[in-house]
Prior knowledge:
Helices cover about 30% and strands about 40% of the residues. The protein is α+β, with helices and mostly antiparallel strands. The protein has one domain (about 20-180): Mog1/PsbP, alpha/beta/alpha sandwich (Protein Transport Mog1p, Chain A, 3-Layer(aba) Sandwich). Strands 3, 4, 5, 6, 7, 8, 9 and 10 form an eight-stranded antiparallel sheet that branches. Strands 1-2-11 form a three-stranded antiparallel sheet. The chain is globular, with a radius of gyration of 17 Å.
Amino acid sequence: xxxxxxxxxxxxxxxxxxxxxxxxxxxxxxxxxxxxxxxxxxxxxxxxxxxxxxxxxxxxxxxxxxxxxxxxxxxxxxxxxxxxxxxxxxxxxxxxxxxxxxxxxxxxxxxxxxxxxxxxxxxxxxxxxxxxxxxxxxxxxxxxxxxxxxxxxxxxxxxxxxxxxxxxxxxxxxxxxxxxxxx
Length: 183
């Protein structure tokens, strides 16, 4: 039993040290994070059809398409359904995280196919955040959204775990979230 446990821990540690990390940086949004080499940043031509054209995208508090922008969408190279997305929203005025969470959750609940878990308060990059899971009858993958607000700038970090290697992909996504920095 000891040998099997040791072998498992050794494999996990060894596997993590061999993962090549890339850095995503968007100086305009002030966002930086690291991601594993088996995740790929998608092109704008791919992001628009996936997220919907600007006219069809859910805008939260804003109805002006220039105020809600996708920053990045990463997909696992195996295309198993895993994704990592960051959106930014310029708010009309400073809003506390609790109010932004309530408004965002309310807009999601207007779709009867969507169910949300309870919000969990967390802290990332010295800002207060709110985290909850989103399930939809039209999408087989559980999605998690992390919302955070810095003055009049709101950010949504969304991720989904696909079908293959779930525990390994969860660890990779946690690593991406943990490395996220907002300047």
